[in-house]
């Protein structure tokens, strides 16, 4: 599917730059997201980060590509009890094919909360990331009728989702609900769980084991029966 952006938000920075002196952020070039949303048929969970690192940090051309980011070690610990399940050890990179097969099998969709950004420093830190064009997350979810939960994987992604839906940012490891308009032909609005999980960056001060414990909620969310509704 095509990338869905918030067009109103995308236009605002451009107009602001024309009407006022150029801010310091204009020194940094605008980067556009390199990938389309990955949405398997029947996706049950949408995982949202902030934005990919620069290409020189990729070990594959897929989400969470930095080899020192632990997302795929966390997921493989949760589902396989082996942090190296998705790693091609002799090549020191992640196995994109195996990861995609896993996501397709379990219904795990992947994208980010920003389509265009500026990096205020030459690194992958969310702290220095300026979102120029946010993704239209609501439209993304409306195209996923079986999605039951959104998972955010860091502070900036969590804040962006909360701002989009006008709700509080959940504490790390907790969740709340967001509401979507009723789908065509249906009377009731749709409720979706909004889960904030720890960042998979090694800069986040939590052990891999404790991060995997937090992400174990994915087993329940991706199961056939879905979540039990616990908060």
Largest sheet: 5 strands, mixed
Query: So what's the oligomer here?
Result: single chain
| Strands side by side in the biggest sheet | 5-2-8-10-9
Q: Could you state the order of secondary-structure elements as H and E?
A: HEEHEEHEEEHEHEEHH
Number of helical elements: 7
What is the 3D shape? globular
- Looking at the overall shape, the CATH architecture is 3-Layer(aba) Sandwich
Strand content: 15-25%
Stated plainly, the CATH topology is called Uracil-DNA Glycosylase, subunit E
Total discrete domains: 1
N-to-C span: 33 Å
- Summarize the amount of helix as a percent range: 25-40%
Query: How many strands appear in the DSSP assignment?
Result: 10
Radius of gyration: 18 Å
What does this structure look like?
The chain is of the alpha/beta class and 231 residues long. It has a single domain, classed as Uracil-DNA glycosylase-like domain (Uracil-DNA Glycosylase, subunit E). It is built from seven helices and ten strands. It has a five-stranded mixed beta sheet. A three-stranded antiparallel beta sheet has the order 1-6-7. Helix 2 packs across helix 6.
Summarize the structure.
This protein has 231 residues and is an alpha/beta fold.
What tags apply to this protein structure?
231 residues; alpha/beta; five-stranded mixed beta sheet; 7 helices
